[in-house]
């Protein structure tokens, strides 16, 4: 059992979700986990870190030099926390490479290893001389088999500006003959649609606090449009797959690691420029039009097969995550 300090920004969105999932997995492996919840800035918590250094020094004196560190490992989620390096024997980073700024990248040599959610991230960090270990990640099982399913489309944009939302809405407006599209988007990023808005678009701007309504939407729509420009891992792809939905995403890394043609649909995407460590991609309009035509004409048994395979991948990934995480920690601790 190791004493692990999980350092993360508790942003009440994706990172909060990651804190819970990773902390639960570490505890299940038998580790003692302390969660240090910090803000978004790289230097946030440095005074707390300094106080802990004093505490560590005092404990070292009292133990006669036998206890040299407060923790066996610091695990930083997404953000680099330089003030905390000296408090653990081993320093690890679980990054979302699209959010690792050039200033934070300067600290990469200080980490003993980078625990990567995707193989794509592993390639990026190994190219920068890091010891990169693939752990993948886990998601939330959102399946509710009691919800009636319809051949309609769902796009969960949230507050992200990199889900391809505006491009998707503009394309759907040009096709009033298509089935219904429901878009959930935060008011922080939503833009008003140009008039007239066709009846096959339901653009819901706001926050859904009722998790039961979110699960109903995820399970009632057979098709999930997850056209991300990039992903740290891809929670909303994995959640759609857990619901046996047919997930449509960009044929680009790392989205194509979760979804492949045997368990979903990939649409052609073009490079849209760099963003921190990653390359962003934007889906091709004509490729998505072809995909929508295929989905609307797809026989029910083919849709069900894709959904079953997506669900099987989700279940397999969940079962394998703990083993990958355990193996990575055994290599570094």
TrEMBL record:
Single GO MF descriptor: transferase activity
Q: Highest taxon of the source?
A: Bacteria
* Record's keyword terms, sorted: Transferase
| The name this protein goes by in its record | Glycosyl transferase family 1
């Amino acid at each position: 059992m190791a004493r692990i300090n999980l350092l993360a920004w508790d942003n009440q969105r994706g990172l909060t979700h990651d804190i819970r999932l990773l902390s639960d997995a570490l505890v299940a492996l038998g580790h003692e986990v302390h969660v240090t919840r910090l803000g978004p800035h790289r230097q946030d918590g440095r005074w707390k870190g300094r106080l802990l250094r004093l505490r560590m020094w005092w404990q070292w004196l009292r133990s006669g030099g036998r206890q040299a560190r407060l923790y066996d490992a610091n695990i930083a989620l997404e953000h680099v926390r330089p003030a905390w390096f000296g408090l653990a024997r081993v320093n690890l980073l679980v990054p979302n490479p699209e959010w690792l700024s050039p200033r934070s990248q300067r600290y990469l040599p200080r980490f003993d290893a980078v625990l990567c959610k995707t193989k794509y991230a592993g390639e990026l960090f190994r190219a920068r001389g890091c010891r990169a270990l693939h752990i993948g990640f886990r998601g939330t099982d959102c399946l509710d088999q009691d919800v009636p399913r319809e051949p309609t489309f769902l796009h969960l944009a949230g507050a992200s500006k990199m889900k391809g939302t505006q491009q998707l809405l503009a394309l759907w407006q040009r096709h009033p003959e298509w089935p219904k599209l429901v878009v959930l988007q935060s008011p922080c990023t939503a833009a008003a649609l140009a008039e007239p808005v066709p009846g096959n678009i339901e653009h819901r701007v706001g926050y859904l606090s009722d998790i039961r309504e979110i699960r109903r939407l995820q399970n009632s729509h057979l098709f999930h449009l997850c056209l991300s420009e990039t992903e740290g891992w891809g929670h909303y792809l994995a959640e759609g797959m857990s619901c046996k939905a047919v997930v449509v995403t960009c044929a680009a890394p790392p989205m194509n690691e979760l979804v492949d043609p045997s368990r979903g649909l990939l649409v052609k995407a073009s490079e849209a420029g760099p963003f921190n460590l990653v390359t962003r991609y934007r889906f091709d309009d004509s490729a998505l039009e072809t995909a929508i035509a295929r989905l609307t004409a797809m026989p029910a048994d083919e849709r069900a097969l894709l959904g079953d395979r997506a669900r099987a991948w989700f279940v397999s990934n969940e079962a394998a995550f703990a083993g990958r995480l355990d193996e990575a920690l055994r290599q570094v601790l």
